[in-house]
Design a protein that fits this description.
Strand 3 (61-63), helix 2 (71-79) and strand 4 (83-85) form a beta-alpha-beta unit. By secondary structure, the chain is an alpha+beta fold. It contains two helices and four strands, in the order ββαβαβ. The chain has one domain. Strands 1-2 form a two-stranded antiparallel sheet. Strands 3-4 form a two-stranded parallel ribbon. The mean pLDDT is 74.
Length: 99
C-alpha cells in the first residue's frame, strides 16, 4: 500500500499504461498499489498483453526508455524475438509528441 499525502490513511495507486507510441493507442492499463510504481512491476503485464495478441499484431520493437532499459527486460525481449530500442525517445528524427 502506498501513501497518499492528500488523504492520509487511504491507499495510493500507480497506473501502468501500455502504449503503441506513434498511433497514440492505449493497449492496456494496470492499476497497482502506489509502492509498485517502477517499470519492473509493469514487465509481466507487457508480456501478458503481447502474448494475448495474434502473432502478426505483436510489437516487434520494445522501447527501452522510462525505466525499461534494464538487462532483465532486454533478455526477456531477446528470448521472445523482439528488438529493443534504448533511448529512442531522444533519438534525432524521432517523432516524440510528448516534447
Amino acid at each position: 500500500m502506498g501513501y497518499n499525502p492528500h488523504k492520509p490513511g487511504r491507499p495510493s495507486h500507480a497506473y501502468h499504461p501500455l502504449f503503441l507510441r506513434h498511433l497514440r493507442l492505449v493497449l492496456d492499463v494496470e492499476v497497482r498499489p502506489g509502492k509498485q510504481h517502477a517499470a519492473a512491476h509493469r514487465r509481466d503485464n507487457l508480456w501478458r498483453v503481447s502474448a494475448g495478441l495474434p502473432e502478426e499484431c505483436r510489437p516487434w520493437l520494445v522501447c527501452g526508455d522510462s525505466g525499461y532499459g534494464n538487462e532483465t527486460l532486454m533478455a526477456t525481449a531477446r528470448r521472445a524475438g523482439r528488438s529493443i530500442c534504448s533511448g529512442c525517445a531522444g533519438a534525432p528524427g524521432s517523432n516524440n509528441s510528448s516534447r
